[in-house]
UniProtKB/TrEMBL annotation:
Protein's cellular compartments: Cell membrane
InterPro entries registered for this protein in UniProt: Cell_synthase_bac
Keywords assigned: Cell membrane, Membrane, Signal, Transmembrane, Transmembrane helix
Any one annotated GO CC term: plasma membrane
Keyword set includes Oxidoreductase: no
Signal sequence range: 1-20
Protein topology in the membrane: Single-pass membrane protein
Keyword Transport part of the UniProt annotation: no
Pfam families reported for this sequence: BcsB
GO biological process: UDP-alpha-D-glucose metabolic process
Main localization category: membrane
Name under which the protein is recorded: Cellulose synthase subunit
Length: 695
């Protein structure tokens, strides 16, 4: 009998494990959301989640955790969920500090473009008097980042639903040959850029010999005749000479795994191993070509979103590929409408604070702006006598403009901001604030409305930010004009793939992505190239090309050390064995933009990748031109020029000077001790003489 129950328990555990393996748990944090807060009496927030073709919506769930303000009257406050623009759930708040809602999802909840749109709307109460509640800062509700989607993975219709146009959403890695060519590096960079525009999670880059068995969904780049036999066997279409090829291999195999459950046996938790089997799909997108010419066409097509988004089959033979963007009269992108930067027309109604938010980057312009004019054009319901209304503009959370509304119902407001007010990445908010006559708010909730015209509202860069020294604040838009060459040391090429992907992504992370650099080995770089092109170089510290960058803040042919100016402690030395990446940006010989990245230590790939990410972050200074970043996410910024005191070239000093620099504190301490001992000796002699005289 005991054996029967043991067998039954084993079967139940097996079934449970199998079901668990069929579900994908994706937290809001994994999608890039932190704890998001809904403010105000009547607030709203929206979430958009991309759903891959391998997800079966029937049976999937939304599990929402939220924390209401402790000041709310919970029984008189409400939360509403709208999924795909249809009401899904409404309820007053419960008494718990952290509350939970579970919603069953279905295929009808997906939009036609395969997004799951979730809106959360609130109606909150603190005093039961709406007029007093209007501007109470205690009115908020926090959506926790550990809320999650429990999505059912399904292989049903896998072979029919997954194609080249939608397969990028689920790719997790890029694989390249162990000895990559320039074509391979270029393919990795453009594939990386395409994936990063699709995903918020980290993108892994592997040499083919280091690909983990657990990674089954990836992009594989390489010339068709150089693919290993097992990989070549997966490609069922053979491109001809001068033809490029995208080929999506799809298969489903049975994976066997062992999982461990902790089972309570007589009050003790005992580990119990169970064997599970799962039908696991495998997707490999090959980017290749019949020869180098065809391979280059496939790489070019990677940078063309129109081609990628309209390829609904499992393979695409490419006979012609080009990325030619016709420039308009506004070719310098000095004026951007709010619609161009992603703004949508929101119809706002109610009282109190009504906000619309927009985001823009310096790189959306063709050059780093010195001054930006922000203009809002909007319509609103005219104010009645005695009503109070205001229009406020916030930039990065700070109020920069406020003006009164009137009876006209027309708004045409502008303000010009300087370079100290806007950052590399900016959040712009437009706020209408309305208070009805005599505070009679209970009967006026629908009396006021407003809408920003996103076509007529715009951002305009008045002047370019021009300095004698280039800084990371001006990256990447400094490379927008002219042609850019990406230069790499041949012996470091295999380590630079991921960093190149970050660079290509940033060069095209704007509203008019059309920066297609050329790739070249450093040994093939011509002296005239340094004058004709913008240069982005990923080099070993011993590369001879470094000597050509005489305008660089740091010269690598001399042993140097960088100091922290606050406490004069060494931060970086060229002889460090720790894996560090060093980036420096400057104007080249013909005033062309130049960025040089170097890496040291045993983890060269990680060092290159770390520093390539660091220079794209929201930097806190306008003048940093040197960045040190290690594989542990430590980062240091410097402003180095010819008179800088935090840069020291060690090899220019004599042996005696270097000895003094190293041991001066000990020498001074020794001299001080000798002086003290001499004083005590003399004092003791004087005291002894006085004693003899007195006797």
């Amino acid at each position: 009998m005991n054996k029967f129950f043991t067998l039954l328990a084993f079967i139940l555990l097996f079934n449970t494990a199998s079901q668990a393996q069929g579900n994908s748990i994706a937290s809001f944090k994994a999608y890039g959301h932190d704890d998001d807060v809904v403010y105000g009496m009547s607030g709203a927030i929206s979430f958009y989640f991309k759903v891959t073709p391998l997800i079966e919506m029937n049976g999937s769930k939304l599990v929402l955790f939220f924390e209401p303000s402790q000041a709310l009257i919970k029984s008189h406050s409400y939360i509403n969920l709208v999924i795909n623009n249809k009401p899904a759930y409404s309820s007053h708040l419960g008494p718990d500090s952290i509350q939970k809602i579970i919603i069953n999802l279905s295929r009808a909840d997906l939009s036609p473009d395969k997004f799951l749109k979730i809106q959360i709307k609130t109606l909150l109460t603190i005093t039961d008097d709406q007029c007093k509640d209007l501007d109470n800062p205690a009115m908020w509700l926090k959506i926790k980042n550990y809320s999650y989607l429990s999505l059912v993975k399904s292989n049903k219709n896998f072979f029919d639903n997954v194609n080249i146009s939608n397969c990028f959403d689920s790719k997790k890695a890029i694989v390249y040959p162990s000895n990559p060519s320039l074509h391979d590096l270029k393919a990795v960079a453009w594939a990386y850029s395409r994936l990063k525009k699709t995903q918020t999670r980290e993108i892994a880059v592997y040499e083919e010999s280091k690909l983990p068995d657990s990674v089954r969904n990836y992009i594989r780049v390489g010339a068709i005749d150089k693919l290993p036999a097992d990989a070549r066997a997966l490609v069922k279409v053979t491109p001809q000479n001068t033809q490029g090829l995208f080929y999506l291999h799809k298969s489903v195999s049975l994976l066997t795994d062992t999982i461990v459950h902790m089972v309570d046996v007589k009050g003790r938790l005992v580990p119990v191993k169970t064997v599970t089997q799962e039908q696991a799909p495998k997707e490999v997108l090959f980017v290749t070509g019949g020869d180098d010419t065809g391979y280059e066409k496939a790489i070019t097509a990677l940078g063309n979103m129109n081609i990628l988004n309209s390829t609904y089959g499992d393979y695409l033979l490419i006979n012609k590929a080009e990325n030619t963007f016709f420039k308009t009269i506004d070719e310098n992108r000095s004026k951007l409408s709010l619609k161009q930067i992603g703004g949508v027309s929101d119809f706002l109604s109610g009282i109190g604070s009504l906000k619309s938010a927009y985001s823009f980057k310096n790189s959306d312009f063709s050059f780093t702006p010195k001054e930006v004019e922000i203009r809002f054009v909007a319509n609103y319901s005219g104010l009645a006598p005695g009503d109070r209304g205001f229009f406020n503009i916030y930039l990065n959370g700070l109020l920069i403009s406020s003006e009164k509304l009137d009876a006209s119902g027309k708004l045409n407001s502008s303000i010009t901001i300087n370079r100290y007010q806007h950052h590399k990445y900016n959040t712009l908010e437009a706020e209408f604030r309305f208070y009805p006559t005599n505070g009679n708010c209970k009967n006026s909730f629908t009396n006021f409305f407003a809408e920003v015209d996103v076509d007529k509202s715009y951002l305009e860069s008045k002047n370019p930010f021009i300095t004698s020294d280039l800084s990371f604040y001006q990256y990447p838009e400094a490379f927008n004009n002219g042609t850019t060459k990406i230069v790499v040391s041949e012996e470091y090429a295999k380590y630079a793939a991921g960093a190149m992907g970050e660079i290509i992504y940033e060069l095209n992370n704007n509203i008019n992505a059309n920066n297609f650099p050329e790739f070249v080995y450093s040994k093939d770089l011509k002296p005239t190239d340094l004058k004709q092109y913008n240069i982005i170089a990923l080099l070993s510290k011993d590369d001879k090309v470094l000597k050509e960058f005489r305008d660089a803040p740091i010269q690598f042919d001399r042993n140097f050390r960088l100091y922290n100016t606050d406490n004069n402690s060494p931060v970086y030395s060229l002889s460090d064995t720790v894996s560090n990446g060093l980036a420096q940006i400057f104007y080249g010989v013909s005033n062309n933009a130049t960025l040089v990245l170097t890496a040291t230590g045993t983890h060269v790939s990680e060092a290159f990748l770390a520093v390539s990410k660091s220079i794209t972050e929201q930097l806190s200074t306008l003048s940093s031109n040197v960045c040190i970043s290690d594989v542990n996410s430590n980062k240091y910024l410097f402003n180095i020029n010819k008179s800088s005191e935090n840069l020291e070239y060690i090899d220019t000093k004599s042996g005696l000077t270097r000895f003094w620099d190293s041991y001066n504190l000990y020498i001074l301490l020794g001299i001080l001790i000798l002086i003290l001992l001499s004083f005590l000796y003399v004092r003791s002699k004087v005291q002894k003489s006085q004693d003899l005289f007195n006797d």
